[in-house]
Design a protein that fits this description.
Blueprint (H helix, E strand, L loop, with lengths): L1 E11 L2 E12 L5 E5 L6 H8 L7 E6 L2 E2 L5 H10 L1 E5 L10 H10 L8 H11 L15 H13 L5 E5 L7 H16 L3 E5 L3 H5 L3 E6 L2 E7 L1 H7 L1
Parallel strand pairs: 3-8, 3-9, 6-7, 7-8
Antiparallel strand pairs: 1-2, 1-4, 4-5, 9-10
Helix pairs in contact: 3-4, 3-5, 4-5, 5-6
Bound molecules: adenosine-5'-diphosphate and magnesium ion (MG).
Protein name: ABC transporter ATP-binding protein
Organism: Intestinicryptomonas porci
GO molecular function: ATP binding
């Protein structure tokens, strides 16, 4: 996945907010990247555009060799439900649905008939160690457990990339460790992950650090872990 001089301008009344000012970024297969930067630097805007949740004002996005910069809302929905997984700080689980049904949600936005949806959801829950809670509802779970269910939901479509916006922001230290260990496992199995964080310790667990400031990328480098792996 690649961007070329990506720009995003939000129009707020008479004011233009330049949230992205020309971002060139390549996310490679099996990358484990964190995006760091002050609040308001454009991290979420970039993730939303890369994740087909929003469109750029200008610039290009290439995904799987196709120019997806200006595709229709329907096509974007297709990519979201078939190619991308999302994890949010506040989990975003539906409170009335069971854990299993929550994990199956991405299928309901997919036009394709997917056989064995339940089986795939159970397999995803198993990967995050939450299969034993498949019939619970979210408020019967701890925060850490909810985030693992949300990760299972992000995994269920076997996405090319998982985007996680501050996924550890609402968790205690013990659960932060669990989520990071889980991400390590997923990356070792070939998953590509792009994660926004404020936490420098969390950033160390990734392989690549992308630093943003004022709508631009000001640093893109390997972490110690990334350097060790590159040898
Ligand atoms: N929907 C929106 N409408 C107008 N301005 C927005 C909107 N979303 C974000 N912004 C502005 O764009 C800039 C980047 O925001 P954001 O990408 O959320 O930053 P970050 O995630 O790094 O905190 C900020 O100045 C923010 O106020
Ligand atoms: Mg943000």
């Amino acid at each position: 996945m690649q961007t070329r001089t990506l720009r995003k301008i939000y129009r707020l009344g008479n004011e233009d907010v330049h949230a992205l000012k020309g971002v060139d970024l390549t996310i490679c297969e099996n990358d484990y990247a964190v995006i760091l930067g002050a609040s308001g630097s454009g991290k979420s805007t970039l993730m939303h555009i890369l994740g087909f949740m929003d469109t750029p004002t200008d610039g290009e996005i290439i995904f799987d060799g196709a120019d997806v910069s200006r595709i229709s809302a329907n096509k974007r929905a297709w990519y979201r439900s078939n190619r991308i997984g999302f994890v949010f700080q506040t989990f975003n689980l539906l409170p009335r649905l069971s854990v299993l049904k929550n994990v199956m949600l991405p299928f309901s936005y997919s036009r394709e008939k997917i056989r064995n949806q339940e089986e795939m959801a159970r397999e995803a829950l198993d990967r995050v160690g939450m299969l034993h809670r498949q019939n619970h509802i979210p408020n019967q779970l701890s925060g850490g457990e909810r985030q693992r269910v949300a990760i299972a939901r992000a995994l269920v479509n076997r996405p090319r990339v998982i985007f996680a916006d501050e996924p550890t922001g609402a968790l205690d230290v013990k659960n932060v460790k669990k989520v990071l260990a889980l991400f390590d496992d997923l990356v070792a199995q070939g998953q590509t992950i792009v994660m926004v964080t404020h936490d420098l310790d969390v950033a160390k667990s990734a392989h690549r650090v992308i630093r943003m400031s004022d709508g631009m990328i000001i640093e893109d480098s390997l972490t110690e872990k990334g350097k060790a792996l590159a040898k």
